[in-house]
Give the backbone structure.
Amino acid sequence: MSGYYEGSNPSGAAIPVAKQRRKTKKRIPVFSRGVMDITFFIIVITLLVIGIVMMFSASYAKALSESGGENGTGYAVRQMAMAAVGIVALFFFSFFDYRHFANPKIAISFYAGCVALLIAVLLVGVTENGATRWLVIGDINFQPSELMKLAVIVLFSYLIVQNYNRMKTFSVGILPFGLLLGIVVILLMMQPHLSCTLLICIVGVILMFVGGVLWKHIGLLCLIGALGITLIVIVKIQTDGFTYFATRFQSWLDPFSDEKGGTWQTTQSLIAIGSGGLFGLGLGGSRQKFMYLPESQNDFVFSIVCEELGFIGAVTVILLFMLLVIRGIYIASKARDKFGMLITIGITVQIGIQAFLNIAVVSNLIPNTGISLPFFSYGGTALIMQLAEMGIVLNVSRQASIEP
């Protein structure tokens, strides 16, 4: 019992330490006052500006075609509008104290709400290019999977902090996290959305590893997950005639096998990358964006970066993403608490892995899985969420011991 009682009340009776701590516990402020990490902020804004410029260039021809030759700025204007909303979100969350996300009501409700939206996608979602990933509410068209990325990071970070001393046990460190990931995997693969599934699983596993889960338990979870995804793919093959996965797998194995058919997109992407050479054709000089390369403003915008800015421009963009990840991990290492550390690592790794997967797809390193390039690809939901996440990281930096 030594150390259990400290101090006394006016009558001389000892007061339990736990009771004293409850009385002295400070309320978490809504906003933080510290100075945010300027280096991280500059990297984000640089990526955003370059991304909008390149998306404008990549989308110009398609916007002209869709408007009958009257307006080539349609995609760019909408993207800039979403960027403005995203910047507001970035600054708001850079001040909003991130510790409020550790509230179980927020963390659990956020995840549950995203699960409900993913179910809604399967029931009433919009289908494009063989995948059902979008919900349309009035004039708003968005992908709930973008929200789910952050929801998993927030919930996993909260659960790890709450069970930090028991994360090495299978019942605590694996089972609940595996169940939560399993629900997401099933709903995403039914769309299907393989790239987002892989991204969320990788981020989740990394958070679990940082949280103290044993290697052997992580290996077992990955094995079970791989078998589960394989089973879902087999079911999809049986139901849709193999078309979705077969086309993408064929494009990866031999991108020039069906240049005018199923492998057209991959072929045109590789032509765009090869055409850029060392210094590129110059900003706006792309030829592949003139209705040769499908989704040039979206998933394949990096191909246009390579074509117009060349190897030098492509490497510059890659280095900027690497700097963002490095600085993000540095901020995580200086976070004031475990939750701040975990949520920063989750967000930073998510952006880094997503950028890697997109670049791997457009260069045919991996099969085409339909994943966007952060800050570059056209898409309002993704851009707003990415900037909001950057705001959360900046708020962690406000409360951390950051060196210039």
